[in-house]
Amino acid sequence: MARRIFVGDVQGCRVELERLLEAVRFDPAADRLEPVGDLVNRGPDSAGTLRLARSLDAGGVLGNHDVHLLRVSRGRRTLRSGDTFGDVLDAPDRDDLLRWLADRPFFRDLGGDVWLVHAGLDPRWERPADVLADCDPFAPCEAGEFAIRVRYCTAEGERPKHDDPPPGAPFAPWFEHWRGRRVPTIVFGHWALRGLVHEPGLRGLDTGCVWGGRLTAWIAEEDRLVHVPAERAYAAFGD
Ligand SMILES: [Mn+2]
Question: Which CATH code is given to the segment(s) 4-229?
Fold first, then answer.
């Protein structure tokens, strides 16, 4: 049976992604790989990660680090300390890799029973697919920024100035506002500090591989989580 295999924030950890694909016995002919975004940055092999995902015809969505890379590639943002995606910018196949990455959307509805977004959804959005459909990764887009960055928000979708230390009421983790709604299971990443979220209707898969944690997959058809440990910590903890 064809499986949808979601994988948390890879952030250039190509070796761990390869090990995770082995651990789930990934079958390229049948299975579909759906990364939660942030394929690149902070880790050791952003270019190799993009090549691997592209070679598998992965789906996936954009994360904040992916969008940062795309904007840097066009000179719309500058490199920041800690950025490690210079290997992509200097790669002989740079244009192919960047074009493939830029083709990722901010949101995917995967068969009606599973939604995929990098960080989270504004509780006011009834139809996230419509709200996010026209967002361009190269241009500022308010809804897109929310989808790739939110951790805490209010019921009205207002974000705090800082996520750390955690803001008090009326701010809450974005998904607290979704509880009780009849919506598909939402798969997301972006919140390594919180770690695995495994609750009815929620699968948060950022388990901090690049910080020395582990890389996590969720196989939708089997409702099964699979983890592989990071070889080492590739960066000091941050965002
Ligand atoms: Mn992120």
Answer: 3.60.21.10
